[in-house]
Design brief:
Layout: H1 2-21, E1 50-53, H2 67-73, E2 78-80, H3 98-116, E3 121-126, H4 128-139, E4 146-152, H5 164-170, H6 174-179, H7 183-187, H8 193-198, E5 209-214, E6 234-238, H9 239-242, E7 246-247, H10 257-267, E8 280-281
Parallel strand pairs: 1-2, 1-3, 3-4, 4-5, 5-6, 7-8
Protein name: Lipase
Signal peptide: 1-17
InterPro entries: AB_hydrolase_fold, Lipase_EstA/Esterase_EstB
Length: 285
């Protein structure tokens, strides 16, 4: 019961992050920072627009209130949308089955490419925003349309959710998770058909460069090593190996200044700036 309670607390915190921030604007409202500016044209310095892909239970703007403005300030054209909507609408996305969400992300990438004239995009994702693009690049033709992929709080092999997956499998409760409008929850259970297809061979496919950033303090993606990749063109970063002063948990990565630095440097390694380790903690959240 203690493990189940921990999971439920985490889920509630995620929902609160979405609904609280959304009280002042709708999930699809264009922020004032200039992201989702469809008149933006990529510069020579940054020819690929950046598509941001949110996590489970978040939406297209609240997940990136820290990162998107930083990318815009660095000169990128930046776009995001809320994918995977179900009964909760735009307040909490990413709940639909992940194969469907991957197709949505693919359609959004096409819209960005067509509007900006860019041949390829860069994708930056958090949590489920790493799993869904990985499927899109591997199985839906996205590898030819993505230059750089950077994920944080990554998850490619599922999560025990502090024991919930084991409990659900033992009690045959996977159908209940789908019944409340969260097909993605079932997809994340180790052994799911979705994960089997994603992990049939390397997750990372030829074409894009892949960067995956994980935190040892992740209590949502358990074990955190589910976010590590193998293969050519892959860079794995354990956050604490870069910055021992950072104890961010899964949700905290979205507002972590150290993550912002790492993302910017991985998107443009030729002009990367010296990494400055900053103390940051979200007490495991």
């Amino acid at each position: 019961m203690a493990k189940l309670r921990t999971f439920l607390i985490t889920l509630v915190l995620s929902a609160l992050a979405s609904t609280t921030l959304t009280t002042t604007a709708s999930a699809d409202a264009p922020p004032r920072s200039g992201w989702n500016n469809w008149s933006c044209r990529p510069s020579t310095a940054h020819p690929e627009p950046v598509v941001l892909v949110h996590g489970l239970g978040a939406n297209g703007w609240d997940n990136f209130l820290t990162l998107a403005p930083a990318l815009r300030s660095a000169g990128y054209c930046v776009y995001s949308e809320t994918y995977g909507k179900t009964v909760l609408g735009g307040l909490a996305g990413g709940l639909a089955p992940m194969a469907e969400s991957a197709a949505e992300v693919g359609a959004f990438v096409e819209r960005v490419r067509t509007t900006t004239g860019a041949a390829k995009v860069d994708i930056v994702g958090h949590s489920e925003g790493t799993t869904v693009p990985a499927y899109y690049m591997k199985h839906l033709g996205g590898a030819t349309k993505v230059d750089d992929f950077v994920g944080f709080g990554s998850n490619f092999r599922g999560t025990t959710l502090n024991g919930l997956a084991t409990l659900a499998a033992a009690l045959k409760l996977q159908g209940l998770l789908t019944g409340v409008g969260c097909g993605a929850c079932t997809d994340y259970l180790p052994g799911s058909a979705f994960l089997a297809k994603l992990n049939d061979g390397p997750v990372a496919v030829p074409g894009p460069t892949y960067t995956s950033i994980v935190t040892r303090y992740d209590t949502v993606v358990t074990p955190y090593t589910s976010g590590l990749l193998t293969g050519d063109g892959v860079t794995n970063i354990v956050l604490q190996d870069k910055c021992g002063l950072d104890s961010a948990g899964h949700l905290g990565l979205a507002i972590d200044p150290n993550i912002t630095q790492l993302v910017l440097n991985r998107l443009d390694p030729e002009h990367s700036k010296p990494f400055r380790c900053r103390f940051f903690t979200t007490i495991g959240i």
